[in-house]
Amino acid sequence: xxxxxQKSPMxxxxxxxxxxxxxxxxxxxxxxxxxxxxxxGDRTVGIAPVGCSVMAYNYFTCDFIQxxxxxxxxxATGVKRARPESVVFTYQGxxxxxxxxxxxxxxxxxxxxxxxxxxxxxxxxxxxxGQMAPTTMPGQVTQTSPYGRDPKAAGYxxxxxxxxxxxxxxxxxxxxxxxxxxxVRAAKKAVKKAFEIQLAGKGFSLVEVLxxxxxxWGLTPVGALEWLREKMMPYYPPGVYKDNA
Amino acid sequence: xxEKVLIKGNEAIAEAAIAAGCRxxxxxxxxxxxxxxxxxxxxxxxxxxxxxxxxxxxAAINMIxxxxxxxxxxxxxxxxxxxxxxxxxxxxxxxxxxxxxxxxVQRGGPGLGSIQPSQADYxxxxxxxxxxxxxxxxxxxxxxxEMYSHTIKAFDLADRYRMTVMILTDGxxxxxxxxxxxxxxxxxxxxxxxxxxxQGKGKNIINSLFLKPDALEKSNLDRYAKYQKVEESxxxxxxxxxxxAEIVVASYGASSRIARNAIDEARGRGIKAxxxxxxxxxxxxxxAFAKAAEKARAFVSVEMSMGQMIEDVELAIRCRRPVLLxxxxxxxxxxxxxxxxxxxxxxxxxxx
Lengths: 245, 352
Prior knowledge:
The complex is a heterodimer. Chain A is an alpha/beta fold. Chain A has helices spanning about 25-35, 70-80, 95-100, 100-110, 150-155, 160-165, 180-200, 215, 220-235; strands spanning about 45-50, 65, 85-95, 115-120, 170-175, 205-210, 240-245. Chain A has one domain: Rossmann fold (3-Layer(aba) Sandwich), CATH 3.40.50. In chain A, about 35% of the residues lie in helices and about 15% in strands.
């Protein structure tokens, strides 16, 4: 019998802790497959954030560092400057990358730091129980926006790709979605390209992945995918925002 | 090869780091430590090293966290308000048992305080600075030569114990110029770090998260077993006219040099005063203080803070002798006459 699909060797053989219907598992697989296809797993260092993917260090077979909340781009900078031959990526959520770690994100990009950021945008703080995130949609109900996010009081969501695309140090940034097979395949291409940009030494690369949180959105997995398509994708249009390849 | 040069304390620290094999410096501007980063920015490119001006103190310490996790010797420097920002990183470095050298050229506080010299960060340094149960090793030089030699020692200690070593100094010593004998050859090299990432010998994880309470407790207990070795092996002090001292002046760093003058003056008046200068502030040289208490009638803690080190002096001698506080703060140093007055006051204490 021919093997037509198998788990990437870059993924450890252990169960993920993510909630049913959460798309972190898909995104982990895409990152793992990209690193494997580029044959760089033995020189890759991942930086785990604080948030739902805090334990990413358990799920990949490469070296991993768990970083303080929001500091992953700074930690990645330290690793990359110490070991320029290594492949360094951060895996961060919206609270980590676009709220507490905004300075680290913007300045790593501005420096053209030759690292890759995988940015999982699910419009909510998942691990802590569903608080308003910097990417929470206007009107979206969360634990800390119980009447819906009111931009007059809580401001507007941040479009990270659009913001980082203005920086000369950003070599590549693309927004993708993992709501359907077609988009998952496109997301895989984007992730792989981001690592290729790093391998070519071109500078900062980031892939923003629109993701779901059925648990904290209070939706079924299928309903969450529909919400992502209907509510998030118009506000956060998928596409390539910068490509210096 | 060694040569004698006239340099500032801040520059001596930078040169010593390079001599110790440090090739990665991450910093952020703040007075009065700027000469250190400026010197690094000039020197690092000449030795194939990395100088990076970070976007914040928070970022700088986390770059240290990453570089140290990758197994290289690295350093950051700052001054008091900036060290507060680094506190998060200090805790994470401790939680992951990562070696690092951090310099605090202290200025007056709290808040933005002043840019004048101070010793008001004693508690912050000797109690670790951040959250959780941990220590950092604290070295307190009192000359530009010691700024140099202690910095080299700091890198060795950091690697040996896999912990942060802080050079706790102040604006006086940082800005002061003195002749220093420097080594032009690299003195020490990176030790083997099989635990680091990028070693290519199987997966390594750098992490301080333990969701199981018993695992986290064990991690803490293991770390404290290490700290116990540090407390047994690494306390350092310097004595001056200490052997027969009845009035023992405790003072570290810049203020210890002023204290020496006052002690000479007191000796001239027939008072058996001596200096016990802690060189390591953590571990505190408790045994030296306990020994001094056998002969001493009283102690005087001379510090540029509102009575911080005095608590460690009292603990070290188990409060068996009176300890007077002689302090100036806010960027002011005590004058010899003030210290002498405190020695005279202490001399009124009766014989044991």
